[in-house]
Amino acid sequence: MAQEVRGVIAPGKNEPVRVETIVVPDPGPGEAVVQIQACGVCHTDLHYKQGGISDDFPFLLGHEAAGIVESVGEGVTDVAPGDFVILNWRAVCGRCRACLRGRPWYCFDTHNAKQKMTLAATGQELSPALGIGAFAEKTLVAAGQCTKVDPSVSPAVAGLLGCGVMAGIGAAINTGNVGRGDSVAVIGCGGVGDAAIAGSHLAGAAKVIAVDLDDRKLQTAREMGATHTVNSKETDPVEAIRELTGGFGADVVIDAVGRPETYKQAFYARDLAGTVVLVGVPTPEMKLELPLLDVFGRGGALKSSWYGDCLPSRDFPMLIDLHLQGRLDLQKFVTETIALDEVENAFERMHQGDVLRSVVVL
């Protein structure tokens, strides 16, 4: 039987979000209803609110979430009611050309729930953020979007792996292949950049250089594992990174901002045959121009990192285990916990750079 629950809705472009009653249908074939315990407030949710992703309003916001599976539909075997899960926005299909080649983290046919959640008052269909919509007491997802992890972890910590933290850690470990003794530079020290710093530290990088315009963020980056910091408002970051790496440049440079200016900095701040990883998300109008001879002459690899090139079934349980062992302190990413009706204020604090992550706890 369909249920009515509270959820945070973005009704229109740049309009304040509000808490509404939404209808969550029973799960159909391949679907699951999840009782949400915690959900992080991510920049992607703000982009949805601003109309920067699509104009399919109203949106049911929230996607960095963890909770308990309440019910499952026909044919679901990987999760069962009572399982503690992290939600992901790339449920792999197992059938596309990437999956069949043994590269499911590149799945080209990821999917979401087929049924729609609706507004109780009007029956209007909602567009769930990244196919999840987890600023709600319960949500409907494809069962493949649920990844079981150790239930002893705090939901407020676990949910962050659903997007930003996984994107950053994966950019370093999966995409950048950071290894023992490497030098790494990370440009942009928000949630994703700090996660890339933590991932580089976890992988055994000898030198991790954090670059940002804000000294507050650089201090946080040191707490995440940065060995050196560069304020790019005061110092040329390319020259500073080269100076800190013997004049050569870093083995891996991660652009966690996603602007042409920062990408060029990353490109020229890497060593010969080094790797550039773009994990910051650009906007559609941005263009990049580089001398083709420089692209050829410097060698190495220029990579984009989708969701940290993660495979949730492999990476989420591993990172939760590392956290529980005390080797990866995910709690450092949680600045504050808030209620559903405080999301609008959390967006403002995010915009001002006052928080790393606000987490809605239900």
From TrEMBL:
The keyword Cell membrane does not apply. The keyword Zinc applies. Keywords: Metal-binding, Oxidoreductase, Zinc. Gene3D superfamilies: Medium-chain alcohol dehydrogenases, catalytic domain, NAD(P)-binding Rossmann-like Domain. One of its GO terms (molecular function) is oxidoreductase activity. It holds the Pfam family ADH_zinc_N. Its cofactor is Zn(2+). PROSITE patterns: ADH_ZINC. Residues 12-362 form the Enoyl reductase (ER) domain. Belongs to the zinc-containing alcohol dehydrogenase family. This is S-(Hydroxymethyl)mycothiol dehydrogenase. It comes from Streptomyces colonosanans.
